[in-house]
Design goal:
The complex is a heterodimer of chains A (132) and B (116). Chain A has helices spanning 25-55, 59-68, 72-99, 106-131. Chain A is mostly helical and 132 residues long. In chain B, helix 3 (57-85) runs antiparallel to helix 4 (89-114). In chain B, 78% of the residues lie in helices and 0% in strands. Chain B is mostly helical and 116 residues long. Chains A and B meet through helix 1, helix 2 and helix 3 of A and helix 1, helix 2, helix 3 and helix 4 of B.
């Protein structure tokens, strides 16, 4: 196998204090894409399976699930999951659109990232209003 | 090909995972539209309507396909997270194995919910 010659990296200043770097909007959307995905896996899947199992069982199960969904803490979990699902879905659609080489310019990439953030938060707000 | 960088606890090398992530995403997006449509059609959470939906064999199979797409998609995503944050191989193997075991458990749970 041929040995690959790699260009020697230029010494650059390292400044990686995450709390002090001002991240561009696409970076924020990207980090939230990961966080929302992790949330959906860790909480979302067991939560929805548990919910479906109880709701689809007996009539009492359906009623018990409905009253459980009325609990403020459960509502908060539901709201967090709704945001995670929306953000992950919209950021994912943005990804696929960019795979098609649409919206690759810096300006449009920033605009689409900002819309992912704003739209998912607005729809989450709508879900919150619907829940309470 | 960067053959020398291959690690057994890494991703698949090539574009398979990339493609799987997108195909499973499209399946899930389509299912999401279907469920939103059903929610509108049933006018929310009506027990008889949802019992009917989940009593339909086609809907159960479609839901099962959604769950498999979700779990395959989640596996790739979560594995990528472990590749970024869990560096020692001796730790990454058990972490990934645990995640894979949980995923298989979820498949069993889904079967139990859909075909009780």
């Amino acid at each position: 196998m041929a040995v690959i010659e790699r260009p020697v990296a230029k010494p650059r200043p390292i400044y990686l204090n995450l709390l002090r770097i001002r991240q561009p909007v696409p970076a924020i959307v990207s980090v939230l894409h990961r966080i929302s995905g992790a949330l959906l896996f860790l909480v979302g899947i067991p939560f929805i399976l548990w919910l479906a199992q109880h709701a689809l069982g007996s009539e009492q199960g359906w009623e018990a699930t409905r009253s459980a969904l009325g609990h403020p803490l459960v509502k908060l979990v539901l709201l967090a999951l709704a945001w995670a699902y929306l953000h992950h879905l919209l950021a994912g659609i943005r990804h696929v659109v960019q795979d098609l080489h649409i919206g690759m310019q810096l300006k449009s990439a920033r605009a689409s990232a900002a819309s992912v953030l704003v739209v998912s938060l607005l729809v989450t707000l709508g879900v919150a209003i619907r829940l309470w | 090909m960067v053959t020398r960088d291959r690690v057994p606890v890494g991703a698949h090398y090539g574009w398979r995972d990339w493609l799987v992530q997108r195909v499973t995403a499209v399946i899930m997006a389509a299912y999401t539209v279907l469920v939103l449509f059903l929610l509108l059609w049933f006018g929310g959470l009506d027990r008889a309507a949802w019992q009917g939906a989940f009593g339909n064999e086609v809907f159960r199979i479609v839901t099962f396909v959604f769950m498999l797409a979700l779990l395959w998609h989640a596996w790739i995503g979560v594995r990528n997270i472990t590749m970024d944050y869990v560096k020692p191989t001796a730790l990454r193997i058990p972490v990934q194995a645990l995640i894979a075991a949980v995923m298989i458990g979820y498949v069993g749970w889904t079967l139990r919910v859909l075909w009780p």
